[in-house]
Amino acid sequence: MDAAELALFALLIGAVLGVSVALVVAAAYRARDRAVRRGAITVPEGIGTVLAGMDDAAVVVDPSGTVVVASTPAAEAGLVEGRTLPEAQLALLARAARAGTASDPVVVPLRSAGEVRSVAVHARAIAPRLVLLVLHDVTEQERLAKMRRDFIANTSHELKTPAGAVSLLGEAIESAADDPAEVRGFARRLRAEAERLGALTTRIMTLSQLEADEPLAMREVPVDELVTGAIEAHAAQADAARVQIVRGGETGAQLYGDPRLLSEALGNLIANAIAYSSPATHVGVGVKTVGGVVEISVTDQGIGIAEDDQERIFERFYRADRARSRRTGGTGLGLAIVKHAVQRHGGEVRLWSRPGQGSTFTIRLPQAVRDAADEAALRHPTRSSDKKKRKRRKDSAA
């Protein structure tokens, strides 16, 4: 073998050795990367146990957005082990946490069981490549917050109108000081706006108290007295509108509740029935007891309520006929108060209405149930009290 052949052979041997070394090095790097990846997706000890005891939906996700570990409630939110995150915003929050730029909890929409829920998402990195997402359902809190915002906005708008009218009428009275007839006319309008403003503030306070779950002054309330009082309180309004109020149905029913709130709720229904009725028609107030439930119905022969409006008629400040409501001084809070007052007493309000045929609002409340001892105490309070005293003395002697 000559020198040229030896050199070629040596070159071949070197090439083979070089390739072999390169392959060994590459294999070592790949093995190291696999080991790093295996170590990175290993869930820290104890995380699974913690997630198993959580009431909120919580998941651990890897860099691909796949759920590695999930709490039991997570399945209800569509977060299942072995599947990717269902919402792009969740994946974005996970990437931000992995990069170290996670912020305070973020509220995101999440579709679950066919409905969209609002969830506050906490995202924190728990390993170089793993992120923990904790989802707390805040749908109800968001709804209440929106209701508060809408309530403040609507209240401000409603208060602005009579307040502005009072200011303008005050200026008009000042400018017409030399004309007694004009002053009297402006004064009547001023009084009407002041009464409207007072009614609005009173109803706002009542609704706020109902929504604040303040204790009610509960006692036994005779339905006959409740109905009679509400009718008498609105007799002048009915006479002015040339509408007759007719009382019918059963007598002797009893309710257990706050008489002031129940009277206001029934009064609001009667006032609305009169306001939305045509002259020479009548408003009926009927009572009946069905299966332990007292039903008080208020029926009118008015303009009726369109089907689309019926779904929103109990919302605060909602008016099916704004023009008529303005003319009659309506605040848009009467039916909202009815709904909340009845619900606070464990009842419900039902509505039947047809445009052009009239409407029927029915308050359904549990009937007051008394045992024999309670019945005797109500009929003969002194005698019952004496019996209780004798029983206490006998128990003490024993």
From TrEMBL:
It comes from Microbacterium horticulturae. Keywords: ATP-binding, Kinase, Membrane, Nucleotide-binding, Phosphoprotein, Transferase, Transmembrane, Transmembrane helix, Two-component regulatory system. GO terms for molecular function: ATP binding. Residues 380-398 have a biased composition (Basic residues). Its EC number is 2.7.13.3. The chain crosses the membrane at residues 6-29. This is Sensor-like histidine kinase SenX3. It holds the Pfam family HATPase_c. It comes from the Bacteria. It is found in: Cell membrane. Residues 372-398 are annotated as: Disordered.
